[in-house]
Amino acid sequence: MRVKTTLVAMGLVAAFAVTGCSGANNSSTPESGASLTIAKPDGAIATESNNPWIGESSGNKLGYINAILEPLGIVNLISPSDDVKPWLASEITWADDYKSVTLVARDGVKWNDGEDFTAADIEFTFNMFKDNPELDTAALGITDVTLDGSSVTIGFTGSMFSKQDKVLHKLIVPQHIWESVDDPATYENLEPVGTGPYVLSQFDTQSVELTARDDYWGGELAVPTLYYVSYNDNTALTTALANGDADWAQAFIPNVDSAYVNKDPEHNVYWAAAGLAVDTMFVNTQTKPFNDVAFRQAMNLVIDRQQYADIAREGSVPVVSSVTGLPTPVGDSFISPEYEGVSYEVDLDAATGILKDAGYTWSGDDLVDPSGAPVSFALSVPQGWNDYVTGISLIADAAKTLGVAATVDTPDSDSWWEAKGTGDFQAILHWTDTGATPYDLYSDIMDGRWLKPLGESADFNFGRFDSPEATLALSEYTNAADDATRAASLATVQKIFVDEVPSMPVGTRPFIGAYNTRSYVGWPGEDNPYVPADPTQPTSVLILTELEAAK
């Protein structure tokens, strides 16, 4: 039975002491049946929601929903050429044009309430996406879902060549629970029923407890209890990782070697695995000053990406250098000939020249727009996201070289997430999704399929960049039947991206994972990169089933 409690800060500390998080006190002796504490630096989680379709739900933000609900298959996004690992679907067969996929439901799987998992659950989940497009955040364009015994065939309006992971990583929900839900977009799902290896046993605004199932279809689990904890900031999280109060995290660690790895080099691991994603400054293209492409171009020329990598990310990630925004070398093969070898360079003279040509002037050192108004903007990220806070401070300093009054705002995480979605900002740092191709990176920034009016919550394209040409080129890219068409479409996308500056990439965004091996082994890493070591990804369920007690 799930118990909901509210713990004050001292109670939370006491709970940790009683449960004995694995690796406490940096002991080199593994604990038998030790729990794992999985951490984020997001501050208190104010409201419980286990809805897998709401990005800001507590289950998604902390990542624990991925231990309760499961995907159809697992695509290794740090090595996309790897074979897909079947999961809830025991067989996965794509049509030659990738406009349909046939899935065979795995036999012998039960929901955690004892009901059998069947192909009807897959059918129901994808019909729910079809009937409620707001849930289909990947815009799969589902046309039909056909059930035939233990198989389900899903049809799409276009090719899923670039979205195979988005289809297969969809979390499947039980029909017998969700068919009675009036509005699946707002359902809080407080008693989550899943096929996954763990069940939710306790929720608190600072700690969520999950307990291992003894009837999990994947076999016996090494870790009996998971605690998902949210610390106030990266510094507190780093301290917790270093002293063993936290065991696994997806978070930037400043001075990672001295602050974490070297505290216990035999067991502490920090792994940044490259993917096709970036940290980027989303700018509100619907409001001043970023509704002017000339100003966006000028700002893009004064951001120092090397400085961002060295200072904000403290050398822990590669510099984003290509003007296409693609990380290198993983993205080299996707860069169009026009931009091969063309890198971001800080060029204040070129930036001021663009502004002068566009009618901007200066009053003393202050930039004045063509209407005669002084230029200013605010950059916003949540408090506690130390690397991002440093990043926007560096960008604000860069803006001041143009005479722009740029300020830094650090609201609480919940307020920031809401403002990000509704477009109530001028500039924010955020990340893009990753995938097997550059499609996700560019789509998240430019695609009209994400476009929502200001005030309505958007899942991506937070800056409301409105380019039918970019939207068409992205659609042509993902639906192309041959490599030549795909390359031509991608070249168009990159041309728009470079010329119109819909957002400003500032750094690469590898999959980051920090963990220790004191109590458990079997983690992914450089020697065995079977999936990213990121506990917030749908693929983290594979890690939870691969862990074994350390000897």
UniProtKB/TrEMBL annotation:
Q: Which UniProt keywords apply?
A: Signal, Transport
Q: Where is the signal peptide?
A: 1-24
Q: Which GO terms describe its molecular function?
A: peptide transmembrane transporter activity
SUPFAM superfamilies attached here? Periplasmic binding protein-like II
- Gene Ontology biological process: peptide transport
One Pfam match, given by its short name, reads SBP_bac_5
Start and end residues of each Solute-binding protein family domain: 84-438
Q: Which InterPro entries match?
A: SBP_5 (IPR039424), SBP_5_dom (IPR000914)
Q: Name the residues that span the membrane.
A: none
Family, per the entry? Belongs to the bacterial solute-binding protein 5 family.
Protein name stated in the entry: ABC transporter substrate-binding protein
User: Which organism's genome codes for this protein?
Assistant: Cryobacterium lactosi
